[in-house]
């Protein structure tokens, strides 16, 4: 590394060398590469609210089932499924009822916020989707699975029609969030994996949304 080479890389503030070159220049000058090229750090390190985004998926079913399994099995305080039907989770997670029952036995609070199968919102959504496996049927599959888990201390279920366009699945301080796009089915909509790192961040905003809906929802049982 020569003085001329160093001057060439530092003369253009819009130009940022590769990592190896940055390291060599910083060693040569005895200055941190972060100070020499702060833009490079900002482009590779998440800052602000972005820090709470663990992963982003263009489709819900692009999120590996192992991510769901890990979040469910690792939870120690609270698990909340606030999807309108929550149907898919029973199909994709093996022995889910037994796993959730064991969670309840260890003191984990397990909550399901689901749509009312007989509501007008559900009927209208069925018209939009126009698929053989109706919204009402998918909700009833979840209700049947939950009924078979009873009695189970720590298991709660409530009806709400206000989360038809947004699903939030939370596991202690992590969450999987799906904003539903127009007439697309749940698995066709994007998903964010969030991890709580600060107050009033992305995780808290969605968690607060579910808390408000839960307080207004009516018990299934």
Descriptive report:
This protein has 221 residues and is of the alpha+beta class. Helix content is 44%, strand content 18%. It is built from 10 helices and 8 strands. The chain has helices at residues 3-11, 19-29, 33-36, 38-44, 65-74, 87-92, 96-105, 120-129, 135-149, 202-216, and strands spanning 53-57, 78-82, 109-114, 155-159, 166-171, 174-179, 191-195, 218-219. The protein has an 8-stranded mixed β-sheet with strand order 1-7-6-5-2-3-4-8, with helices on both faces. A hairpin with a 2-residue loop joins β5 (166-171) and β6. The radius of gyration is 23 Å and the shape is elongated. 24% of the residues are buried.
Q: Which helices and strands appear, and what pairs or packs with what?
A:
Elements lengths: L2 H9 L7 H11 L3 H4 L1 H7 L8 E5 L7 H10 L3 E5 L4 H6 L3 H10 L3 E6 L5 H10 L5 H15 L5 E5 L6 E6 L2 E6 L11 E5 L6 H15 L1 E2 L2
Parallel strand pairs: 2-3, 3-4
Antiparallel strand pairs: 1-7, 2-5, 4-8, 5-6, 6-7
Gist of the model:
The chain is of the alpha+beta class. Helix content is 44%, strand content 18%.
Q: Give the SSE string.
A: HHHHEHEHHEHHEEEEHE
Give a short account of the largest sheet.
Answer: 8 strands, mixed
Helix content: 40-55%
- The proportion of strand residues reads 15-25%
- What's the gyration radius in Å? 23 Å
What's the overall average pLDDT, rounded?
87
Q: Low-confidence parts, pLDDT < 50 over ≥5 residues?
A: none
Number of helices: 10
Q: What gross morphology would you assign? A: elongated
């Amino acid at each position: 590394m020569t003085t001329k080479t160093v001057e060439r890389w530092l003369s253009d503030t819009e130009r940022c060398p590769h990592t190896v070159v940055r390291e060599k220049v910083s060693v040569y000058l005895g200055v941190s590469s972060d100070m020499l090229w702060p833009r490079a750090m900002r482009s590779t390190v998440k800052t602000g609210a972005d820090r709470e985004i663990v992963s982003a998926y263009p489709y819900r079913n692009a999120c590996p089932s192992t991510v769901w399994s890990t979040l469910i099995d690792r939870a120690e305080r609270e698990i909340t499924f606030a999807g309108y039907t929550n149907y898919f989770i029973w199909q994709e997670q093996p022995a889910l009822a037994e796993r959730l029952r064991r969670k309840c036995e260890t003191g984990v609070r397990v909550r399901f916020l689901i749509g009312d199968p007989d509501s007008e919102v559900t009927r209208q959504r069925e018209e939009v989707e126009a698929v053989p496996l109706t919204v009402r049927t998918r909700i009833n599959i979840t209700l049947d699975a939950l009924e078979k888990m009873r009695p189970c201390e720590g298991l709660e279920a409530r009806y709400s029609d206000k989360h038809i366009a947004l699903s939030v699945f939370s596991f202690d301080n992590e969450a999987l969030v799906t904003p539903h796009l127009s007439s697309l089915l749940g698995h066709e909509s994007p998903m964010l994996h969030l991890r709580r790192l600060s107050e009033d961040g992305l995780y808290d905003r969605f968690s607060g949304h579910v808390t408000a809906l839960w307080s207004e929802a009516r018990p299934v049982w």
